[in-house]
Amino acid sequence: LKRMDYTAIGKAVNVALELNKTCKTYGADIVVSEFTVADARRRYTLRELDRIRVEGGHDDPVTIYEVLDHRLEDKDPRIISNGDELALYFEGLSCYRDQRFADAIDVFTKLHEVRPDDVVSGLYLERCKYFIETPPESDWDGVWENKSLDLESAAYANCSNQGSLSSFGKKVVKSPESRRASFTGSLFGFLNQSTKSLKTEL
Question: How far apart are alpha carbons 134 and 38 in whole angstroms?
Fold first, then answer.
């Protein structure tokens, strides 16, 4: 018998590999792309995280989202869980993308006071401070390109309760059994629903 090795290549694989890296960056358990969100058959509680550029296949930015359902079920105190907080978050995100970094700092600072353990808000605070000193180009598309600059560590350091951060983040915690089950169910639900689009892209 001749042994053969197989691999998968293509746009969908590159996106999946990139998403795997982002969980730690944003302190998230489940991160999905705009393609999976578009193909989902049921409504999930999502928060838009960022726009990223995927190596090997995407010149245009890909929007990524955090799935919040399992954290809301466990009443995770780190999670932005009401309409006012989400509205404040998206206001800050809009300011950031419009290159109104001073305004974005004001908004994310307010949000950070309410949710001090929200890694994403802390990350945007650090980015805005950087961009005030080193502004991006006028045609900037919102993608953070300076990956050699370790703003992630500063964002985690600003969290008041680092021990409760995501298991994908700087601190590893043992989650309750219910949370693991909920996490697994949400993850496999998304994987099952995106199978058709992944096959098409491959």
Answer: 35
pTM of the complete model: 0.71
Q: At CA 27, angle to CA 23 and CA 31, rounded to 5?
A: 35
Encode pLDDT of 136-164 as tens digits: 998 999 999 876 666 767 666 767 544 33
The most distant pair of C-alpha atoms in the chain lies apart, rounded to whole Å, by 66
**Three-state SS letters, 29-97:** CCEEEHHHHHHCCCCCCEEEEEEECCCCCCCCCEEEEEECHHHHHCCCCCCCCCHHHHHHHHHHHHHHH
Sign, Cα dihedral of 163, 167, 171, 177? positive
CA–CA gap between residue 56 and residue 10 (Å, rounded): 8
Residue labelled with tokens 């009401």? 82
Closest-CA residue to 13 (of 49, 67, 52, 57): 57
Question: Quick check: 29 and 181 in contact, CB under 8 A?
Answer: no
> Residue 108's closest CA among 96, 138, 98, 81?
96
pLDDT of residue 166 exceeding 50: no
Question: Helices 119-133 and 11-26, interaxial angle, to 10°?
Answer: 100
The reported pLDDT for the residue numbered 91 is 96
